[in-house]
UniProtKB/TrEMBL annotation:
Superkingdom of the organism of origin: Bacteria
Similarity section: Belongs to the CsgG family.
GO CC annotation: outer membrane-bounded periplasmic space
Entry protein name: Curli production assembly/transport component CsgG
Purpose of the protein: May be involved in the biogenesis of curli organelles.
Length: 284
């Protein structure tokens, strides 16, 4: 009897293992792990569809800091912030993508100056490499300085859910909405005047769905099963989208105020500019 029971247990264990290995993989498990380019939102395509400039603006970004002071609500929140600390790189990418700016390196200015010192020191040696033989030109100066930062991160702006349970069978759905806000302003380097200033916000959605059963199918035989998944919108992509929208609004404000001029036919790209300006008019 004991041998029969042991054999049944072994067969059951093997059956469970084979069942787990032969089941159809979930969609999340089928996702490719090959690195890809960062996905872009509609704000990116609005930005690249702006009209072309009459002349590109020399711009610098010294930093675009996280000014929220928010940390993730987890046990390890002491060292994990709610938003990215690389927003300056995102801003420089958005400025370059717009086609309106020549972005000069200033965030890593100390590293750049150190490398230039190394080149000058190497030029004094008898055997100078060909790539550093020429005299170093001076660094270019900028006309505009882009300032600002991530100024707010609000959690649980909206939250809720819905569900139903009947005879031990239940299904439910929950959601939560966070919001991130960025500020961007263009400053005239010669006068220090703030030429344009915008604030943009982007919502961050989290959705969870689950279903389960907890029911006696026969006397002393309980069926219990549960399935569910959660989808969280990446916070860094939402920050990137808010920054791209801020750059678009900044350009639209400058075009409307004639701070910078459009090349060619003014009708080219006018629909995109009007789209940004109409959003400003819709604000109460």
């Amino acid at each position: 009897m004991k041998r029969l029971l042991s054999a049944l247990l072994i067969l059951t264990a093997l059956g469970l293992q084979s069942g787990c290995s032969l089941r159809e993989p979930m969609s999340a498990e089928q996702d490719s792990e090959t690195p890809t380019l960062t996905p872009r939102a509609s704000t990116y395509y609005d930005l690249i569809n702006m009209p072309r400039p009459k002349g590109r603006l020399m711009a610098v970004v010294y930093g675009f800091r996280d000014q929220t002071g928010q940390y993730k609500p987890t046990p390890a929140s002491s060292f994990s912030t709610s938003v990215t600390q690389g927003a300056a790189s995102m801003l420089m990418d958005a400025l370059s993508a717009s086609g309106w700016f020549v972005v000069l390196e200033r965030e890593g200015l100390q590293n750049l100056l150190t490398e230039r010192k190394i080149i000058r020191a190497s030029q004094k040696k008898p055997d100078v490499a060909e790539n550093i033989m020429g005299e170093l030109p001076p660094l270019q100066a900028a006309n505009l300085m882009l300032e600002g930062g991530i100024i707010a991160y609000d959690t649980n702006v909206r939250s809720g859910g819905e569900g139903a349970r009947y005879l031990g069978i239940d299904i439910s759905r929950e959601y939560r909405v966070d919001q991130v806000t960025v500020n961007l302003r263009a400053v005239d380097v010669r006068t220090g005047q703030v030429l344009a200033n915008v604030m943009t916000s982007k919502t961050i959605y989290s959705v969870g769905r689950s279903a389960g059963v907890f029911k006696f199918i026969e006397f002393k035989k309980l069926l219990e099963a549960e399935v569910g998944y959660t989808t969280n919108e990446p916070a860094q992509l939402c920050v990137l989208s808010a920054i791209e929208a801020a750059v678009g609004h900044l350009l639209a404000q400058g075009i409307e105020r004639r701070l910078w001029q459009v090349a060619g036919d003014p009708a080219d790209g006018k629909a995109t500019v009007d789209k940004f300006l109409s959003q400003n008019q819709q604000q109460p």
